[in-house]
Amino acid sequence: MKDWINAARLRTLPLSMSGIIMGSFIARWRILNNGGTWDWQIFAMAILVTLLYQILSNFANDYGDGIKGTDKLRVNEAEQRAVASGKITAAQMRNAMVLFSILSLIATVALLYLAFYPNHIREFWIFVGLGIACILAAISYTVGKKPYGYLGLGDIFVFIFFGLVSVCGSYFLFTKTFDWDILIPATSIGMMSTAVLNLNNMRDIESDALSGKKTLALRLGFKYAMIYEVILLMLPLILILVFLGVNGFIKEGKYYPFIVMILLFPMTALRRKIMTVNEPKELDPFLKQVGILTLMMAVLLALGLNYF
Questions:
Q1: Are 81 and 66 in contact (CB under 8 A)?
Q2: DSSP 3-state assignment of 142?
């Protein structure tokens, strides 16, 4: 069981929940201000679905990199991958992928039934298709003949699914509408999620070069990937500030939602520490820290909008 828990990579789960929290509680703030009701059951189911997607993705990455031999070259990786180390066989991991794909689909359908049935049948089927796309994206990052993670497209997919789909999709589950301003916090979460992936790829840049995994970090080179990382970590809080501005909080003198800006201090300190790194393997501790800051950004904005 310990090997399966390690393969699930629990430290990645806070990052996957951030978009759901952000979208759901922005929806709550907007719905309650308009005299509506917010369904906590939809939120709980959405969290369950995204956790299943994340575990599926982690199992698929373990399997894909394991059978391709990529993980065996990562001699300095802090976390020993299960398939590459032989702790879990490729066949067992493939079976786990199938199981979690089925569980993810069942949970997705249950969530969408709760959110859309019976008054929004068209939206139900659209989101079923989106859920299937999420499952396929989780698997095909490293699995298949041409996995997109090996082509340098991982950053785009992470930005789309962890940012735009997660935040905008969860927002729509509650409101049944799309408001353009939700793209601002969605972009913020997407950039933070992409920052985590880029850090991961910068850490593995040397082994990926040997294995032929042409990530964007590898294509850019360590120096320019570092510049890219700094940009990804600088813009999210600015975007949150823009979101609060366009919604009139500054004009109306309502400052509680700005509690999220306290993250400016730890995020600035974190960027400076990352910029001093010269050895890729030294980046590993920052992965968890960026993930936690992403979750804190979502939680603090949720609290500021809804409870202060």
A1: yes
A2: coil
